[in-house]
Design goal:
The complex is a heterodimer of chains A (485) and B (191).
Chain A lengths: L1 E8 L2 E8 L13 E9 L5 E4 L1 H20 L4 H7 L5 E5 L4 E7 L15 E7 H16 L16 H7 L2 H24 L12 H11 L8 H10 L2 H16 L6 H18 L10 E8 L4 E6 L2 H5 L6 H4 L6 H4 L4 E8 L5 E5 L2 H6 L9 H5 L18 H16 L10 E8 L4 E6 L2 H5 L6 H4 L10 E8 L5 E5 L6
Antiparallel strand pairs in A: 1-2, 2-3, 3-4, 5-6, 6-7, 8-9, 8-10, 10-11, 12-13, 12-14, 14-15
Helix pairs in contact in A: 1-3, 6-8
Chain B lengths: L2 H4 L13 H17 L3 H11 L8 H9 L15 H17 L1 H16 L8 H17 L5 H4 L4 H18 L4 H9 L6
Helix pairs in contact in B: 2-5, 2-7, 2-9, 3-5, 5-10, 6-9, 7-9
Classes of the chains: A alpha+beta (485), B mainly alpha (191).
Chain lengths: 485, 191
């Protein structure tokens, strides 16, 4: 028995004719076999008509194309995969139109389309297309008609989507990236490579190290001593140099008891480290400086043998090399004469100035350190005979000194500078002195020498002031004995 | 999970979250619905409730958060859009589109007639209304610094997008609209 099913929408009329294999009640017959399918679209006289193969192709094309519209990604790669060109194809026709092509001899031409019998082309509007989709959807949802046909939609696999993007579009990001790199490289090529400048050492330190290492010109044993010195480890030289500074600039410990104690400590220390085998033939004599805490802070060779054989002695190992040279420079020291004999005996005794006199005259250090080491200018007598005590005058002088210094140009400072300045009643600078080695080193660059005008008549009333130039460029002036109450 | 969500099959995507293009596409469709119907945003909330899906997208803030997964939005959340959240959005969009079927058909018909006569789209009052509203919505909510938004910097480009979305919404109104839309969201993304 022939069954006809019709799905009618405003722009689409889908008519299916088929047979039922099950003889059931006339009310609920199921169409199992499709004989023919007819599709009338819009006002067009053209009718799409065909067998089951055509109908299946129509469903597939419509499903694919509607999904193409929804996602914007073409699905025809799937058809190429299947190999055969489908009977029905839908393509974009620009604007609101879509192109339906049916490749089949079975196109029922209305009348005048006889010329193109093997292909039918139709132009569908979006609404017509939707009605076609909806007619098919309604058929698929109808369980009474061809129930084995179901909606089959599947997402496009990734490998086909890639091909959908044009090569130019895909290459664009890479091209932009490469050109950006080129431009950046060209621009950066113009920028000079930054220069590395090693941090500057404080001026005072540098000058003193040099002075410590250099023997005085004209002293004879320079030739013999120098090669040996250069063979020594750097710290030995540094230690010797350090002693130069300290011995000359540091106050000495005078308390006899303390000196005896330190002497004992030093002897014990050296003995502990003294090896049994001493390979030298002459007595080694060193001048050693010890801090209040008993640290060995420097030593110096008194004879040539001592210089050559310094590594045989424990002195280099015992020397305490301070991190902050500026701080220890102010530390009081005790000096000792340390003698190592070839027989392994050790003698430690306090250093006396008579030792210096007894030194061989050709010793490199004998006459140099005193001459070369920077000496703080002691231009000022420590005490003032006639000191100004009037508070008002002191304040006034302080103010005047401050004003005089305020506008002067200062050199680039690597550390704070402190000076003691003496003024007379009129506010003229009678004298000045640096309070530490660093200040002494740059004394000539400060405005102080230019300020000293008055002659040092010590009987006139005078007052001392302390001035400080800090690294930050701040000038501080204050009365030496504090602000009067 | 709700039975209605099971009508949409889980696609074979990485990490069980929606890819970038789907997040953009679904938010754009909802944006087009808002341009069609002034009350669409309220309707979305009530639809979520009617379909009993408010366990997946709870309330107004939840809806806003889910829509903000669109990478082009100013308020982009950088959070993933889970498959069930996307399913709810698809169902809501199709549900609302179906209610607006008549209007959508009218507008598409009007667009076709105007383009046949090569007339400007402003001649169709209702269509012009939709387009201008869509442009306003789009510019207010999308981040203009994004390359994906810069593409739509002109009115013409935005109109094209709006018409494209209108035809897509029409396809959503169909019997199998949700399935077709859902499947299209993962085009080019499945293994």
């Amino acid at each position: 028995m022939t069954i006809q099913r019709q799905y009618t929408l405003p722009n689409c009329n889908l008519i299916l004719e088929g047979l039922s294999t099950h003889a059931g009640g006339d009310f609920a017959e199921t169409m199992d076999i499709l004989v023919s399918a007819e599709c009338h679209l819009g006002n067009s006289a053209q009718v799409l008509k065909g067998d089951r193969a055509f109908f299946e192709s129509l469903i597939a094309a419509v499903s694919q194309y509607s999904q193409e519209l929804l996602s914007g990604l073409p699905h025809h790669y799937l058809n190429q995969l299947k190999g055969s060109a489908p009977t029905v194809q839908l393509t974009q026709a620009g604007g609101p139109y879509h192109h339906l092509t049916m490749r089949s001899p079975e196109v029922a031409n209305g009348s005048e389309m006889a010329g193109s019998s093997n292909a039918t082309e139709m132009k569908l509007t979006t609404v017509q297309l939707f009605d076609l989709v909806e007619a098919i959807d309604q058929f698929l949802a109808d369980s009474q008609t061809l129930p084995e046909m179901n909606l089959s939609v599947e997402s496009l696999p990734r490998r086909y989507a890639k091909a959908a993007t044009p090569v130019v579009q895909r290459a664009l990001p890479a091209a932009i990236g490469a050109s950006t790199l080129t431009v950046a490289a060209a621009a950066l090529f113009m920028v000079p490579v930054p220069k590395f400048t090693p941090p500057e050492r404080p001026a005072a330190e540098t000058s003193q190290d040099v002075q410590g290492e250099e023997p005085a010109p004209g002293s004879t044993p320079v030739e013999t001593a120098e090669p040996a010195a250069s063979e020594q480890p750097a710290d030995v030289v540094a230690a010797a140099a350090a002693l130069d500074d300290r011995v000359e600039t540091s106050p000495s410990i005078t308390d006899a008891e303390q000196v005896a104690d330190l002497q004992q400590q030093l002897e014990t220390k050296i003995r502990e480290q003294l090896s049994d085998r001493l390979e030298f033939t002459e007595d080694l004599v060193y001048r050693v400086a010890v801090s209040e805490q008993g640290d060995l802070i420097g030593y110096k060779y008194v004879n040539d043998a001592a210089l050559l054989n310094v590594d045989e002695t424990p002195l280099p190992g015992l020397t305490f090399i301070p991190l902050n040279q500026e701080l220890v420079r102010q530390e009081p020291v005790a000096q000792f004469r340390v003698t190592f004999t070839p027989l392994g005996e050790l003698a430690v005794e306090p250093w006396s100035d008579s030792d210096r006199a007894a030194q061989p005259p050709d010793s490199p250090e004998a006459d140099t350190p005193e001459a070369d080491a920077p000496e703080i200018t002691a231009e000022l007598p420590a005490t003032i005979e006639n000191e100004i005590v009037t508070p008002v005058l002191i304040e006034d002088l302080n103010q005047r000194l401050y004003r005089a210094l305020r506008d002067r140009q200062l050199p680039e400072l690597s550390s704070d500078l402190t000076y003691r300045v003496r003024l007379d009643e009129a506010g003229d600078v009678v004298g000045y002195e640096a309070l530490d080695a660093a200040s002494q080193a740059v004394l000539d660059e400060t405005p102080l020498p230019g300020l000293a005008t008055a002659d040092g008549d010590t009987s006139a009333p005078q007052a001392d002031f302390r001035i400080a130039f800090t690294q930050n460029g701040v000038l501080e002036v204050s009365p030496w004995k504090g602000w009067p109450r | 999970m709700s039975l209605i969500l099971d009508s949409l099959p889980d696609p074979n995507v990485l990490g069980e979250v929606c890819p970038r293009r789907s997040r953009m596409q679904i938010d754009f469709l909802l944006l087009a619905l808002e341009a069609l119907d002034l009350k669409a945003s309220e309707a979305m909330l009530s639809t979520v409730k009617d379909l009993e899906l408010d366990s997946v997208i709870p309330g107004r803030v939840g809806l806003w958060l889910v829509r903000s997964t669109n990478p082009l939005r100013r308020s982009n959340q950088r959070r993933p859009l889970s498959l069930s959240e996307a399913k709810v959005l698809v169902l809501v969009a199709c549900h609302l589109a179906r209610r607006l079927t008549v209007l959508i058909r009218q507008l598409l018909l009007g667009y076709q007639q105007l383009s046949d006569k090569q007339l400007a789209l402003e001649h169709h009052f209702r269509l012009a209304d939709y387009l201008s509203r869509f442009r306003a919505h789009f510019r207010a909510r999308m981040n203009p610094r994004r390359a994906g938004v810069v593409v739509y910097s002109t009115d013409e480009k935005l109109d094209e997008l709006a018409i494209e979305l209108l035809s897509q919404l029409l396809l959503c109104t169909g019997t199998n609209g949700p399935q077709r839309l859902w499947s299209s969201l993962f085009d080019g993304e499945v293994a």
